């Protein structure tokens, strides 16, 4: 199976290797602009009249698309998109899209739901748009995570990647994202015949890192109450933002503060907490703060980081409450609602693998650690791996071999029940242990990482050395 895939994948990857991720995205977008309509213009994203009466997960539209590497190189994999009905925070009906990638010789009783980290409140960063050939590549993280999707495809899994932030790019609200994931799984299950899946209840494992772990953690939390019929076999969440308040305080006034305005815009989206939150924000935001929010509403993650670099939400030049903003009752309630593990009903009922670096400089380790203890005290089965070196970005890669083997084990129903913890140093990375030739993919990831922070680029250099070692 893998051998069959190798030739076309290699061709695409060889082309890919000619590029480095550090090439200027602006050049790519100039070359490709205008080939694909963005979601505000593309009628596919508009739900048909009366869709509100459909059940969550109902299929509203379908199409085939040409997917790509970095928007530029056609990906020779079959790709479908489904517009499906899902649910807003207030319970009303909304719609969103999932993109399904199908390998040439797929396993027909299962699929992976991969929740890419788009980390942005702009609809133009939405994965279903970014994956298409000809889209300007503004969402660098989704482009890089496409390589992780390729690994799952090479293993024979159909992979679905839902736009879990919904129709108005609501970055941050866990309930919305969790329901978006679960309804995406329902939509894929409803589409089983077209995909060649054997039944309408295929086995599923859900996975995501960082922003994608907000979606994953909440989908795992809501699965028992919102979509108990889904045949989910396991969840993988790395670098998990378990506590939004904790994340906010941790990244405020750092190079990563740019995620804060994006989350404020996302939490205030109409499908999220707009009705209650927008009047509060309007009453406290300064002119300067408004500019920052307007910017975050139109940009993807990398631009967001540049736009609010080293700035503080608690600055009265941004909003008039200063440090008191976290005690403002509506804001405090929204943040508390988006902390995983607070409601005992939101406890995952199928095995979960979580991993997190102690030195993670974006998502605090301690919040994930607390969540694992909380879930375990309520009978969840969580395997938690602590990575003792590396930053946020490299940990996604370091944790990948274990994440992938957990996915495999979960599908086989062979994960251990109960909770366990272990600690790993970076030298445990051994891509060859997976029995696949992942080297070209890892090289690409390493290139991408060298653009990132100090912890990560040092780690990336170390990985390069390792990569040379394993490939000789
Ligand atoms: C979430 O983080 C905030 C800020 O660190 C903390 O005060 C709060 O207790 C945390 N909530 C939970 C449930 O751990
Ligand atoms: C990279 O390798 C060097 C030398 O082995 C080591 O001292 C350093 O801690 C490593 N860096 C990281 C981030 O693991």
TrEMBL record:
Domain of life where this protein originates: Eukaryota
Species for this entry: Aspergillus nanangensis
InterPro entries referenced in this protein's UniProt entry, alphabetically: AB_hydrolase_fold, Lipase_secreted
GO molecular function list: triacylglycerol lipase activity
Signal peptide range: 1-23
Keywords of this entry: Hydrolase, Signal
Protein name: Lipase, secreted
Gene Ontology biological process terms, A to Z: lipid catabolic process
Pfam families documented for this protein: LIP (PF03583)
